[in-house]
# Entry
Amino acid sequence: VENAYEAFASLLNLVDKSRPRKTGIHPTVVIESSAIIGKEVYLGPFVYIGENCQVGDNCMIFPQVFIGDNTRIGSGCILNSGVKIYHDCILGEGCIIHAGSVIGSDGFGFAPQSESEYMKIPQLGNVVIEDHVEIGANVAIDRATMGSTVIRRGVKLDNLIQIGHNVEIGENTVMAAQTGIAGSTKIGKNCMFAGQVGVSGHLKIADGTKLGAQSGVPGDIRKENSVMTGYPAIDHRSFLKSAVLF
# Structure
């Protein structure tokens, strides 16, 4: 075949689809009376679905998942054990969220009152996750202070990633484990972040940016398809030349 890795993935998909599919609603599930549940939905033990929620057709929701009030989940989603989705969040179609991830927790917003005290800033927004997004285990995506934290279509997030409030991640961007994105940063489409990348808040990252492992980004990246490494993140080839001198 022309693309062996893609063909290999296709074969594994066939094997995966051949496995028995979970069905039915376990008697320990709690569904508030105003919630709407679609057709052919699996709800495992001790799932909770809040008021005015909507769950689309063919979803699979595994044990001990919490879905807060007014949350909407599109068709064909898979929520693995222990996922927590706070109130007012929106998931598109075909999303996969792995065990222990939290969607819509409060953003890190505190107003200094004195040298030693802080006032909590209410986080009144939500999280919007578009179609065919996959989120790894133990990922935290904060709700917006106002408006929405947005994860665009086709984004893939590895385990142990932190996405701050009001962040926007563009289509088909991928991020490896332990990446952290501070609040209000806008990341373009088709970006690739290696492990332990850190991005400061209120920045703009251009489409197609590639960041090497442990890169730290303190300022905007305006040039599309940049390849950067280090802290502060600089051109990848320049970093390698500097590493030789070090």
In short: The chain is about 10% helix and 30% strand. The chain has a mean pLDDT of 96. The radius of gyration is 20 Å.
